[in-house]
Amino acid sequence: MEGAWRRLRIHGAKAGLGQKLRGNPGRGAQGCGATNIYLVATSIAKMEKQHKLADPNDGKIAVALQKDLDGVARYVPKWVIYAVAVALGLGTTVG
Fold first, then answer.
1. Distance between CA atoms of 31 and 5, rounded to whole angstroms?
2. 79: domain range?
3. Which pLDDT score is estimated for 55?
4. Is the pTM of this model over 0.85?
5. Which of the 8 DSSP states describes residue 51?
6. What is the DSSP letter of 28?
7. Number of C-beta neighbours around residue 24 at 10 A
8. Rounded to an integer, what distance in angstroms lies between the CA atom of residue 89 and that of residue 95?
9. What region does 52 belong to: left with phi over 0, alpha with psi -120 to 50, or beta?
10. Mean pLDDT of residues grouped by 10 in the chain (95 residues)?
11. Helix-helix angle 56-73:2-11, to 10 degrees
């Protein structure tokens, strides 16, 4: 995760992403930050798939950033998975 933030600071500064994600977000801004991370990761994946990145070095950096951000954005703790499974199982049994 630390590598992703470092690359985001270095390469995302041109897009102004650092200013949006920096600092102490308010109570409702945390979900927005996770959404932004997910959107950046999927946008990079689409750009790479469509060969929109002209410079090969930028492509390598973007793919590495996308992989790091995917690990952050798509992480679900095990306890959440188990809690949802139990809730669905009990709901199906009762209902």
1. 17
2. 2-94
3. 82
4. no
5. T
6. T
7. 5
8. 10
9. alpha
10. 56 50 53 80 88 82 86 86 94 82
11. 130
In eight-state DSSP terms, residue 55 is S
What is the model's pLDDT at position 18? 47
| Count: domains in the chain | 1
Residue type, 5: W
Contacts of residue 7, defined as CB under 8 A and 6 or more positions apart, other chains included, come to 61, 64, 65, 68
Task: Yes or no: say if 7 and 61 are a contact pair by the CB < 8 Å rule.
Answer: yes
Give the amino acid at 90.
L
Block residue for tokens 């897009």: 15
The total number of residues written for the chain in this structure? 95
**Residues with Cβ < 8 Å from 42, sequence gap 6 or more?**
none
